[in-house]
Design brief:
The protein has 179 residues and is an alpha/beta fold. It has five helices and six strands; from the N terminus they run E-H-E-H-E-H-E-H-E-E-H. A six-stranded mixed beta sheet has the order 2-1-3-6-5-4, with helices on both faces. Helix 1 packs parallel to helix 5. The longest helix is centred in the middle third of the chain and has 15 residues.
């Protein structure tokens, strides 16, 4: 259920990182889904990068975006599985000032209708760092669609009530009171 207040939409600057050992920009349907959804919603694509699953390269890229005052949101797809090379949560968790525990919990809850008990293996997570929201999601296009349509579209919209992530982000307009 969407609850939108009468307010002017605030577009956010969103960076998209795909972590994959096998994809390139032409075959990256998950990253492209995020690009398509965020631009259709009225947000700005701040950057798009594809990296191999390397903990230190992932950490360095995300840290660069966290330090960039123009990037308000980082969406990461891939590297959240259980193989030896899947290291996105480990790369990102230490950079976060605060974790958004409910993000992974809710992502798993809404994923159960699509993938059943396999949702237990999701290591989706999100948190805030230096006024930047960082979200780590599985690499499947369906998982990214579930995350955008079920969580991110509303939580990245400053008009969504009773609350959203926008007032916690760098250079974002403060949200009106709940009153």
């Amino acid at each position: 259920m969407s609850h939108k207040a009468e307010a002017v939409f605030v577009p956010l600057n969103i960076a998209v990182l795909t972590v994959s050992d096998t994809r390139n920009l032409e075959t990256d349907t998950s990253g492209q889904l995020f690009v398509d959804r965020l631009t259709a919603a009225g947000h700005n694509l701040a950057a798009r990068v594809l990296l191999k699953d390397d903990l230190y390269k992932i950490r360095a890229q995300v840290a660069t975006w966290i330090a960039d005052d123009l990037v308000q949101v980082v969406l990461i797809t891939g590297g959240t599985g259980f193989t030896g090379r899947d290291s996105t949560p480990e790369a990102v968790a230490c950079l976060l000032d605060k974790q958004v525990d409910g993000f992974g919990e809710y992502f798993r809850q809404i994923s159960v209708r699509d993938i059943g008990t396999s949702t237990m293996q999701s290591r989706a997570l999100a948190g805030l760092a230096n006024g930047t929201l960082v979200c780590c999601l599985p690499g499947s296009t369906n998982a990214c669609r579930t995350a955008w349509d079920g969580i991110l579209a509303e939580q990245l919209d400053n008009r969504h009530r009773p609350c959203n992530f926008v007032p916690h982000l760098t250079q974002a307009n403060a949200c009106e009171s709940r009153g």
